[in-house]
Amino acid sequence: MAIEGGVVYNEVDFLIPAQRFNIHFSYVSQRGLPFIREFVLRLVHISPVSKTQIATYFGLSPLETDEAVSDLVQRGDLTLSQSGRLTLTQKSSNYFTDLEDSPQLSTVQQAAVALSFDLATFSCLGNSTIKDSWRGGLSLSTNSELASKSESKVELEFQNQFSEIYEARQLPGIVSRDAKEQPTLYIVNSVHKLRQFPLRLSTEFKLDPKGTTLERDDYELLRSSKHVHELSAQELTRLSKPDNTMALMKAATILGDEDSLKVFDSATNAVNPEFLEDLNRLEEHNASGRTTFLGPIYTKDNWELLQKRLAPIVTKRVNAKKDFSDTRFVWIAPSDPFWGKSERVFAGLSDFFGRSSTKEHRLYSPAIYVPISDAEDIRSARQWKNELSLYETHLSGIAEGFLEGNVEMLLMEGELAVVIYHFSQPTKYPVSMPLGFVSTKKSVVQKIGEVAFRYVESSSGFGKPNDCGKILDILKK
């Protein structure tokens, strides 16, 4: 589990506003001369010559020689010296940088391009169309004054970044790729804003092998990540919850889970990845039916772990060729501000619901419970509907308070249980740390199921069931 570069304990997507612009501009490029005229200039560049020498060297007739030389004289590229030889003018001397170079003439050309820039660092994001949503991430606010004047700011940044943008091949209308012929910006004629969209910055939060948090990596898309790191740090501080370590230890006791606490270092009261490695080795060899993991369940590796445990159960049900609609498979989301703030959650939800049936039979009945205050909490219900709109028909509200809101569960009745503790330790980690396990041991699944369904099926008071009903029904009230 200890990998080079750190152990990932959480993943969060930050969303910063970006805009797409149409930019019309003029640039100065280098173009070559017609073949004969080019080589006449190259010959004269080496040494002044006479018209007769030019005719002899190139095998031209007197008429062809007169035409080539006259054209170059009229252009101001050749002049006659006092010795009667043709020489370069000051203008044509500037066409050359080295003795053996081809002469290049500057010319101003028009071009237009659609480019995107983020509104935090105003880095050019390229000319590809970016399509994304504001769901599954934490939105970061940027300078509103700069955003309102984005066209002027982008005009300035396009000038400053022109060389970088060209080198990145983001100016398809400019075809020259020779470093010696790199165009230069002449003038920006106009900048028009087209639309706004979120730039998604997927961020890994990591630990070193001893459990100390590491600095976050910079974002390759941005010219500088410092300002975005500052904005995200402010948002993380705003969302952070008090330390809940004791509450989670209590929850582990209620669930009969003694193993999860073994990964904590008593000296630091923090997760030690080396202890987790040791526990994983024990679990692998003692056939306990349990695997402990770090990070959200919907990350790639953890979701693959879940699917590996779920696959034999599903395969057996497929082969049985009968309906299992009476088997509940519930996903209880925690009251954690960082849960679901990654686009990876949507892939997990797609699997969770999409694999619940075949064309002929139901393999399990999926449901996801999301925390709200009560059945009258319209505001939270609307937020969940917007955030998980693709799965809105499957969403139910659950009254906040299940194991104090710190525990997430996925539970297939009688078959499989996943428990994830969302540790909040703001003095150690900028985001919560999900630590969980998956188990197929019948006694463990039964114990966890009793705790989960007891809460779901009970009430916090008269007329206040913890199961608040479908989110869509709440919004109809």
Question: Can you characterise this structure?
Answer:
There is one protein chain. 34% of the residues lie in helices and 27% in strands. The protein has an eight-stranded mixed beta sheet with strand order 10-16-15-14-11-12-13-19, sandwiched between helices. Strands 1, 4, 5, 6 and 7 form a five-stranded mixed beta sheet that branches. A two-stranded antiparallel ribbon has the order 2-3. By secondary structure, it is α+β, with helices and mostly antiparallel strands. α2 crosses α3. 34% of the residues are buried. It folds into three domains: 145 residues, no CATH class; 71 residues, Orthogonal Bundle (Arc Repressor Mutant, subunit A), CATH 1.10.10; 236 residues, no CATH class.
Biggest sheet, in brief?
8 strands, mixed
Low-confidence region ranges = none
Q: Order of strands in the sheet with the most strands? A: 10-16-15-14-11-12-13-19
Helix count, DSSP H or I runs of 4 or more residues: 14
Question: What share of residues are in beta strands?
Answer: 25-35%
| Number of domain units | 3
Helix content: 25-40%
- Distance between termini? 49 Å
Shape field? elongated
Based on DSSP secondary structure assignment, what is the total number of beta strands?
19
Radius of gyration computed on alpha carbons: 34 Å
Structure class = alpha+beta
| Mean pLDDT reading | 90
